[in-house]
């Protein structure tokens, strides 16, 4: 505790603290004066003395020490106590990134554990935490698209929004990849960042929409935006539970996956396509993007001192106020 105080607190004009040495002399003279009064005062009767009885006899000493405390607080305030704090200054330019999640029904395929979307969310959060100074936003799409989180440096908020993503969030079915890209492009168009990228996470099983993936990719190219496409899944045979009039049965089917469309989108925008066929591969994909898209962000710590003398002045005023109030209770006079 003492070490922390020494490293975090200091005085701008510590010479004034020498005045604190007079306080012991005030205490000495106060108690000497009381002893002299009690040992030399000889009277034939005490009927005319202004004596204090009961709890009131303790008030004068309390008032005296409150005045000393006020004096000490004032001296400390004059010495200008300061607290040292470190401010982190970030310079350079970051990258604006939109994470574009496919939340259609096919993203619940279980060729990932527990499914494609859950695995994509978990690894996306790791990616967010490994960025420094970049602004990150989130869009989601199924048959229609939606901006879930605008561009922000608040990674805690971004991760919280990733947590709430689930299939069926938009209450529609289908996979309109073009709409998801178009919404992401609109989020980045107004950005003044030098580098703007979209990371598209989907199985590529496009079911059409108002805007085709090719048209959306052209929009991104015109806006100077690169789209890194991540194919979530594979053509594995997976099992699904189907309910019919005879009950629930387990059927095998080929998982929905189309990487050709994702390769074309990435190539058209000058980016790269990655296939993530399991959780480990997905993590490597994000690591690769981290290497390809680096920010020019640098940070430095600047030490600054902040004056904290006001609490001592307020404390001094309060002590004086209480001291004079106590004195008034005893003598009915504010002055000593």
Your description of this structure?
The chain has 336 residues and is α/β, with parallel strands linked by helices. 41% of the residues lie in helices and 25% in strands. The protein has ten helices and eleven strands. The protein has a six-stranded mixed beta sheet with strand order 5-4-3-6-7-10, sandwiched between helices. Strands 1-2-11 form a three-stranded antiparallel beta sheet. Helix 4 runs antiparallel to helix 5 and helix 6 (177-189) runs parallel beside helix 7. It is elongated, with a radius of gyration of 36 Å. The two termini are 39 Å apart.
- Cα distance spanning the termini: 39 Å
| Gyration radius over CA | 36 Å
Examine the secondary-structure arrangement and name the CATH architecture of the largest domain.
Answer: 3-Layer(aba) Sandwich
Given as residue ranges, the uncertain stretches (5+ residues, pLDDT < 50) are none
Feature tags:
11 strands; 10 helices; 336 residues; 2 domains; Rossmann fold; three-stranded antiparallel sheet; six-stranded mixed sheet; alpha/beta
Short description:
The protein is of the alpha/beta class and 336 residues long.
How are the elements arranged and paired?
Elements: H1 2-8, E1 9-11, H2 22-40, H3 59-78, E2 81-91, E3 95-102, H4 116-129, E4 135-141, E5 145-152, H5 155-164, H6 177-189, E6 195-202, H7 213-222, E7 225-232, E8 237-244, E9 247-254, H8 260-268, E10 273-276, H9 279-292, E11 298-307, H10 310-331
Parallel strand pairs: 3-4, 3-6, 6-7, 7-10
Antiparallel strand pairs: 1-2, 2-11, 4-5, 8-9
Helix pairs in contact: 3-10, 4-5, 4-9, 6-7, 7-8
């Amino acid at each position: 505790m003492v070490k922390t105080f020494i490293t975090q607190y200091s005085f701008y004009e510590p010479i004034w603290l020498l005045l604190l040495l007079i306080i012991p002399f005030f205490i000495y003279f106060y108690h000497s004066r009381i002893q002299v009064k009690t040992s030399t005062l000889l009277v034939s009767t005490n009927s005319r003395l202004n004596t204090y009885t009961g709890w009131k006899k303790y008030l004068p000493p309390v008032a005296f020490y409150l005045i000393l405390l006020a004096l000490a607080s004032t001296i400390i305030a004059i010495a200008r106590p300061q607290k040292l704090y470190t401010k982190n200054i970030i310079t350079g330019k970051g990258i604006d990134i939109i994470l574009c999640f496919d939340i259609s029904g096919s993203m619940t395929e279980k060729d990932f554990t527990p499914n494609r979307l859950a695995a994509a969310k978990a690894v996306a959060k790791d990616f967010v935490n490994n960025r420094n100074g970049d602004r990150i936003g989130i869009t989601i799409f199924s048959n229609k698209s939606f901006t879930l989180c605008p561009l922000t440096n608040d990674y805690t908020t971004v991760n919280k929004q990733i947590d709430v993503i689930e299939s069926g969030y938009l209450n529609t079915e289908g996979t309109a990849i073009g709409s998801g890209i178009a919404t992401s492009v609109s989020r980045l168009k107004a950005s003044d960042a030098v580098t703007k990228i979209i990371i598209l996470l989907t199985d590529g099983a496009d079911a059409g929409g108002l805007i085709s993936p090719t048209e959306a990719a052209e929009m991104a190219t015109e806006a100077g935006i690169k789209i890194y496409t991540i194919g979530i899944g594979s053509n594995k045979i997976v099992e699904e539970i189907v309910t019919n009039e005879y009950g629930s049965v387990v059927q095998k089917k080929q998982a929905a996956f189309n990487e050709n469309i994702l390769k074309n989108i990435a190539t058209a925008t000058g980016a790269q396509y990655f296939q993530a066929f399991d959780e480990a591969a997905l993590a490597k994909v994000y690591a690769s993007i981290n290497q390809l898209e680096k920010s020019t962000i640098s940070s430095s710590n600047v030490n600054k001192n902040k004056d904290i003398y006001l609490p001592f002045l307020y404390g001094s005023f309060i002590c004086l106020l209480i001291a004079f109030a106590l004195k008034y209770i005893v003598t009915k006079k504010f002055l000593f």
